[in-house]
Amino acid sequence: xxxRQRQPSSPDSWWKNGIVYQIYPRSFQDSDGDGIGDLxxxxxxxxxxxxxxxxxxWISPIYPSPMADFGYDISDYCGIDPRFxxxxxxxxxxxxxxxxxxxxxxxxVPNHTSDRHPWFIESSSSRSxxxxxxxxxxxxxxxxxxxxxxLSNFGGPAWTLDPRTGQYYLHSxxxxxxxxxxxxxxxxxxxxxALRFWLRRGVDGFRIDxxxxxxxxxxxxxxxxxxxxxxxxxxxHSLLPLYTADLPEVQEIVREMRGxxxxxxxxxxxxxxxxxxYLPLARLMAYYGLDSEGVLQxxxxxxxxxxxxxxxxxxxxxxxxxxxxxxxxPGAAPNWxxxxxxxxxxxxxxxxxxxxxxxxxxxxxxxxPTLYYGDEIGMTDVDIPPDEVQDPFEKNEPGRGLGRxxxxxxxxxxxxxHAGFSHASPWLRLAGDWAALNVERxxxxxTSMLALYRRLIALRRAEPALHAGAWEPLDAGADxxxxxxxxxxxxxxVLLNFADAQRGIDRALLGERADVLASTHExxxxxxxxxxxxxxxxxxxxxxxxxxxxxx
Length: 552
Ligand code: GLC
Ligand code: MG
Fold this sequence. Notes:
The chain is an alpha/beta fold. The protein has 3 domains: 3-113 and 185-460, Alpha-Beta Barrel (TIM Barrel); 118-170, Oligo-1,6-glucosidase, domain 2 (Alpha-Beta Complex); 469-545, Immunoglobulin-like (Sandwich). The protein contains 16 helices and 18 strands. The chain has helices spanning 14-17, 39-44, 46-52, 87-99, 118-123, 185-200, 249-262, 281-286, 306-309, 314-327, 346-350, 352-364, 392-396, 439-443, 449-462, 464-467, and strands spanning 20-23, 56-59, 103-108, 137-138, 159-162, 167-170, 205-208, 272-275, 301-302, 335-337, 368-372, 470-474, 480-487, 490-497, 503-505, 513-519, 532-534, 539-545. The strands form 4 sheets. Strands 9-8-7-3-2-1-11-10 form an 8-stranded parallel β-sheet. It starts with 13 loop residues before the first helix and ends in a 7-residue tail after the last strand. Bound molecules: alpha-D-glucopyranose and magnesium ion (MG). Alpha-D-glucopyranose is lined by residues 69, 72, 109, 173, 209-210, 276, 341-342.
């Protein structure tokens, strides 16, 4: 399809104005008592998501998998793993979601398959197999050993020798996750067909796993040493991924994927692509795919993970938001992420009080917010004893704090057995605080994190200034992150006090009259704010009337 004939995405596209909620399916809700969350479980909880106010769910992989990397090792792109249910369960889930106005986004894992995928079994059967070139096979180095110095993101070399055919295959992650050869057109065609399989079943988009890794150097040159590497850190960071990540050829694939999903846009709306991209700002922006005619042909939402690694200080975050806004190509939709299944939870990174401030930040910035399940009730990372470790990353690199089990524990629904997650003992232990910290308790407590999330989400939905308005940075003094969100005559001012002490706010920022719309604290909402003094670690959103614009 000619890009200029494409329907431009409307300004009110659901993925621009809405909120995405990530479900880690193993840990959300178990319906059949095997201790593992499943699709019927998710379906049972759809009304919770509607009440929370989110617009779309992204579900981490649910395809058939040996579960070496808990579903990120796929052995069939067009099926459902029996642990999660059946295709019929999936169809019912999509129907149930759509009936409630919720979109469904699947996880697409194109960089690698499982080593049990029939493609890899064929590919490894002989050097002359027709599927040999679907993966990346190389002879040993001249003196023996791996073909080059490339490292697996999960520790150790990125190459494993297949003794039967005497060649090494490449795996950017586990040896059970061989990398596909995206230079091979047959691989591309097969993978695009997998996308169409789910699009035909009604899915509203895909989150694309490690999108930037898809293409590797054609001559397999060694990666250079990383001069900034700190010994003791994640060993895969000892080299710069110059020849293994973010190669120019990836952009062509992104455009092709975009073409595949755009062909399915219909009256229900666009189908969205979200890219998992851990890249420096300028390179991240490349994935919007701005072409010479000003058309954005890349993924609609290249995940912006900057808040995940940021130092939790007003000036640091202020700088980062400004730089991000300034770097966006014309017409590009911003987005913000606070947490995911690979990173420590926000409540553990910054503490429970500051996590309330983080919620207000996420839900008042300009751009699509993505919430990680459980963050809306303030779930924290859970210490997993060594003999209960599940994550292969932790097993490969024990004791370095790289494991991801702590942020993947079962959702804490109620004070009932196993926190209402399952009738049986869950696959991964529950947090120790589940009996006190759960949805049931927080639902009836107006001061809870859940109540705060619901208020902020409702406000974001109700206020076009928040979900579709402009953003303008403000200067409200040290330790205060301040910005305005405006649409037409409506002006909202957000003030986030990162200090552990009170902070007074200059009247000039508040116009002639300012009404408090939301606070992270116990502050009567809707009341006229005469002299505004913020509590320690308080965030407020105000509607400002008769304001003079005060860009800093
Ligand atoms: C992505 C996923 C992560 C997975 C890895 C390999 O980073 O988010 O969970 O282990 O890719 O597929
Ligand atoms: Mg189950």
